[in-house]
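#structure-requests
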Amino acid sequence: MTAHGAQVTKRILFQIHWFLGITAGLVLALMGVTGATMSFEDEISEALSPRLYAPGVPSKPDLSPDQLIARVQADHPGYYIARLDWEMARDRSHSVRLSSSEGRGRKQGQVDRATGAWLGAPAGEGFFHLMDDLHRWLALPGGGNGIGRQITAFSAIALIFFALSGLYLRWPRQALDWRAWLVLDLRKTGRNLWRALHVVIGTWVLLFYLLSALTGLWWSYDWYRQGVIYSLTGKTPSEEGRRSEKRDGIAPRPSIDPAWTAFRRATGNDYIWVRITQPAPSQPMKTISFDARPDGARHLRQTDKYSYDPASYALEKRDLYDRRPLGVIITQSVYELHRGAFFGLPGRIIMMLTSLTMPLFTVTGFLLYLSRRKRKQAARALAGDVAAVAGGDMGGGDLLIAYASQTGTAEIRARNAAQALAHGGVRAQVVPVGRLTRDMLAGAQRILFVVSTYGEGEPPDMARGFASRLLRGGAIDLGHLHYGVLAIGDREYPDFCAFGIAVDGWMAGAGAQPLFPLIAMGHDDEAAEQAWHDALHDLGAGAGDRGQTVIPFTPWRLVARHALNPDSPALTAYHLQFEPVGTDVPEWQAGDIVELHPCNAPEAVEALLASQAPEGDLIAVPAALRAELARAMLPEAGTPLTMAAARALRPLPAREYSAASIMADGVLDLVVRQVRDGDGRLGIGSGWLTAHMAPGETTMMRVRPNPGFRTDPVARGAMILIGNGTGIAGLRAHLRAAAHDGMGGHWLLFGERSRAHERYFDAELSTWLADGTLARLDRSFSRDADCGRYVQHLLADAGAELRERIGQGATILVCGSLEGMAQSVHEALIAILGEVTLNDLAEVGRYKRDVY
């Protein structure tokens, strides 16, 4: 099966799985609880009525079977003893089942072995009878011939499907890793915890549920029972064996006592319990049979059978349990298999516990379904809001809002602005700057530019074509147009907001009139935020923001961390996994960005405190002060460290990392390389994540959308993924999404230092090559003597295939270091495809970069 076919199969199985879950789940939960309740019915009944079962040794001798049967039937006119369970121990009473000679009436209870007196039914008999009716046919009218039997049979079939489809759906990529199958991490919360409970405990109980369902169908369908008997024994139940010939009136009934005497003489004290059964009075007794259970038997059906001729009372057959073929033993012990007793007391306990977990799957299944439905509704609502605000990307409106974004910040701000304007009654079209044309500008009256600057004063990739066509494309008269520019950048770069400034200059040079002075916005720039808010308000905006700018930071727990290149001479790179703390699980996609609030190294905080605290007085420093200093830019030694002063310190800037996993993984993965300064000290962000933060601790993070590196799996075609170093993070997320969606045929070109140490996620890549997710994998190792090349060299060697794949609709994704790799790859792509083609690909979203 191809990767795409496998994914289609998974989708179909998943849809059926959850549909059956919401239809049969409640029935299975009820069957599980009632089945567990009856697991120890005999023991519970005896515990509730001990004197009923063990009244003590009688002073009179025991009645014989014939005498006992006659006495009991005389006391219960219209009933006959269908089953007599004879206890060999004289301090115990016998159990009998009375059936109505006409109709379906039934009584069950204990009788005195010496007098035949009816002792009564045990306490709780009515309760267990109800549990039995609920378990077998939901206590619905018609009993075993009604609709209830069909519902429980369908539910048993559904349980088989749940077990098998659940196994297939959760099959881990490393199938031999027992931890992936069986370890339950209770530190997870919310949806992740529900899913873990559902799939991990489901794996624990899978075999028991299959056994329960497959044996439960024995009583649901005659064709199923006959098929099982034939498959296990090679025989079909004979008509005589299933139904004795009926006669009018009462058939002659032979005496049981002579056969009983012969049986006791032959077996002595070999058995502790014997069952004697009788057919209805209208049916002849063709043989007298005793089912005898020895002491130490694992279950009730572990019996030897002795059959006697009713005329001569000679032994016709001795059928010993231990000598029966396994298939016969199984068909005679289906009930014991169903309740786990076939495997002794441990089997009964395990089956009871697994039955009790059935409601867990119903509850967690419903929670997962509702969570999934809630996420879809939220996504549809947000999409509707954006569509209503934008009026369609190219539709009409009162003004244009054009954005140029690399990591999504500018796009989300543009859409938030459109929504705020819509709340004030102003219609806005939101368009990427790459779609702006001279005709659109000529037909507009007002336009807002929300543009980011990327790298060393460059436009975002999506705006390169716009910059070539319009900014450098000659004079244009825009005297009729009013405009405003929100320029977004990073003040740490010398060319702060250079692209936004270039757009502003171009618009002014074309004669356009400014709506407000250019707003240059950096990180955490309150003045620029207020200026932008005021500008929108002057344009008629109402209140309201939605999107990336209001995504809160929330606590995430570090659950795993391991080095990817532990023995490498290079700086160590780590693979980290986080899970959210709380029930609200943030959503993210491949390509999104993780923002992290790091903390200072504990030793740096303690060193600062020690430089000012009196000797030996560090222990008196308030914990709150330490917490404030952990999150702030530390001052120079000697600065007074009051709580007010600590709160006034500038907070540590957030760090950004590419998400290395998808939401379906259940954990948020990062790939972080340690950074050290000239003194050998770890960087604040990488140090906090890779050294100072311990597994189990929490840190404040948020996942924000990055439209500039997201892809549409339907429209993108195959992916050409290019990167180096920790850039594997963003590329891995896209490959995991592709594998999850069953979209194969991708190409990864990746560069690192050495083959011996930096083969990141090698097992996953090999798996993707094997299943078709990856059609091609090219690697370069710059420090190896037999390679010595970089990833851009791999591109140059594969130019012909690159052009072919682009012609087939492929999307290029680049993730890794801006210095060196990204620019060199960009130049290699220009050499292969041409600058115009590459700019066109960027504008239509087929050339995307997440570089740093």
